[in-house]
Amino acid sequence: MDVGILGPLAARVAGLPVTPTATKPRKVLAVLAAHADQVVPVDAFVDELWGDAAPRSATTTLQTYVMQLRGLIGAASARAGQPRDPKRVLVTRPGGYLLVTGELDLREFERRAEAGHRAARAGDVAGAAEHFRAALARWRGDPLVDVRVGAVLAAHVRRLTEARLSVLDRRVDADLRLGRHHEVLAELTGLVARHGTHENLSAHLMVALYRAGRRGDAAHEYQRLRACLVDELGLDPSPALRGLHRRVLAADPLLLTPEPVRLDRAG
Predict the structure, then answer these.
(1) Model confidence over 27-74: pLDDT tens digits?
(2) In 3D, which of 131, 141, 85 has the Cα closest to residue 111?
(3) CATH fold of 179-267, please?
(4) CA angle 23–25–28, rounded 5-degree value
(5) Helix or strand or coil: residue 184?
(6) How many Cα atoms are found within 13 Å in the side-chain-facing hemisphere of 112?
(7) Please, are residues 1 and 26 in contact by the beta-carbon 8 Å criterion?
(8) Cα distances (Å, whole numbers) of residue 223 to 31, 210, 242
(9) Domain 2-99 grouped into CATH 1.10.10.10
């Protein structure tokens, strides 16, 4: 089964869609997809589907949802002329279930992101930017955006969202080191609007503005971030960001030269 969770939930068997429309079978598939090729304990499904209000029939009802998913898998493979035992795709294991996946957007995202990190460590900035960009291209929107998530999936969504933001931060960093400040300005403006206390993104925007000849706007971005940090978190900007602000005010010519801009703390 080919599965996508980096956006709306998507599942295909032999090229045909098998994503259920009913809420709870959809959540079961999402849990399986989020833990692809791993055994998911029955308790995790129960927590996701019912939380603290699980009925006595929870395990039996879960089995019904699994049967429905297997029915979709079997019907799709038969229509495609590639009949396959659905129990070999959605596998029963002691204490839980396992989904055997083919293509998985999360796996490809993680593979390309790791390639980007390796390239960055080796000093290949252009290669790092390319890999990070390819990793981010796997995203189709917010993770599992069309699934009504419970406790189990909510934690997974938070982790995925942070992973995406981290790779985005590294890709922008690489682009700035390659002198692409004009190309990333509009994107950074939107990112900072959505992640108002993220220090790395704010630093990237300050540098991009400065290199674009907009020193006043760069200084204003620092003041905006400082106000957000104080109001929302009760924090002051990090020493590194304060140092960057001083360099902007002093019109430091070295800031015009592409170089790494990394801060120790991101809010």
Answers:
(1) 999 999 999 999 999 999 999 999 999 999 999 999 999 999 999 999
(2) 131
(3) 1.25.40
(4) 110
(5) helix
(6) 22
(7) no
(8) 42, 15, 10
(9) yes
